[in-house]
Structures are given as structure tokens and as C-alpha cells.
């Protein structure tokens, strides 16, 4: 891996005078028709979304002002997921703050028995990786650093030294937050040894 030790937040395409998409709109997943409802419900539960339209075979999930962020389509004749294929690795959703992320972690754990496969403080983000029922990987995360300080962060050497992160125990993190520890300090990546890439959940 080659690391670029100089970081900067590039100007937006618009600021550079380019015509680019206004936003990232949605992700569409296909699944065997008999599993469409299960997958749709999983996204509704995880994202606190509602279907703006759904049938037994497909649906559109929304949780904000976008009419659909995730759509699920039942497709006949699909092969099941196989690990290690080129293509999308995961999709990620960012929470407002660590409290919201921990609230979501506990809600999914306690009310739905949905638990993360892997939790890691990457440095720039605190990230929890889940598998949906088809083994698509979904990251729920929070930014550890205000966006205007990201470039500065990437220059401070921490990320160059360890671009992977340090694993964390979500129960411990949530307990420390509840005990009143400062959110900003809990978001700081602790010292430690990064996990081997083989420890990341395979998909
Ligand atoms: Fe990510």
C-alpha cells in the first residue's frame, strides 16, 4: 500500500465549475423474491425507515427527505451471495453523533437481535459493520472529526501510521458514554495494534 502523506479537502465539483450530481441518491438491492420482504424489513428496522411504496416483491425505503434511499427488488433466478467477488464492499450511513450511533446499536441489539460483525475506530470515523440478510455489508458510523478539520487530521500522522484503525467493544463504548464520558474524547482513536485485514468480515 502506498500512502499519500499530504491531505487536503478538494473543492467540490461545483466550486470547480463542473456539472456533477447534486447528491448520492440511492442503493438498489436485488434479492430472491421470497426474501424481498425480509430484506425490506431489515432496512426499515435498521434505518428507522418506512416504505414509501411496497409490495410483497419489492419496495422503496425512506427515512429522510429522499423518496428512496434503499430499494429492494425481488428478482427470480438469482444466485446466492458468494464472498470475494469484485464490486461493492459496503454502503455507509452517518449518524449525527455518537449518542445516536450507540442508541441505534442498542435498539438493534435489544429489539431485533441485529448485531454488528465488526466495530472499529478508523480514526476519521467510528464504524460498525453489519450484514443484511443477503450478506451485503452496511456500515453505521459517526465522523470523529468535524469536516473542516479532516484535512488537518489526515496530516497529523495518525492515519498514515495506521490507516486501518483500532477495534472497539460497542458495549463498553456505550457504557462509557452513558457514564458521562465526553463524546469527543470517546471518538478519539485509542492507541493499539490495528487488526489484520483478515479479521474484517468477509463478503
Ligand atoms: Fe465505509
Tell me what the structure shows:
This protein has 203 residues and is of the alpha+beta class. The protein has two domains: 26-76, Signal recognition particle alu RNA binding heterodimer, srp9/1 (2-Layer Sandwich); 88-192, 2,3-Dihydroxybiphenyl 1,2-Dioxygenase, domain 1. Helix content is 25%, strand content 23%. The strands form two sheets. A five-stranded mixed sheet has the order 5-8-7-6-9. Strands 1-4-3-2 form a four-stranded mixed sheet, covered by helices on one side. The chain binds fe (ii) ion (FE2). Fe (ii) ion is lined by residues 90, 92, 139.
Strand content: 15-25%
Strand order of the largest sheet: 5-8-7-6-9
Number of strands: 9
In terms of per-residue confidence, which ranges show pLDDT below 50 for 5 or more consecutive residues?
none
Radius of gyration, taken over Cα atoms and rounded to an integer in Å: 18 Å
Bound molecules: fe (ii) ion
Coarse structural class = alpha+beta
- State the CATH class of the largest domain: Alpha Beta
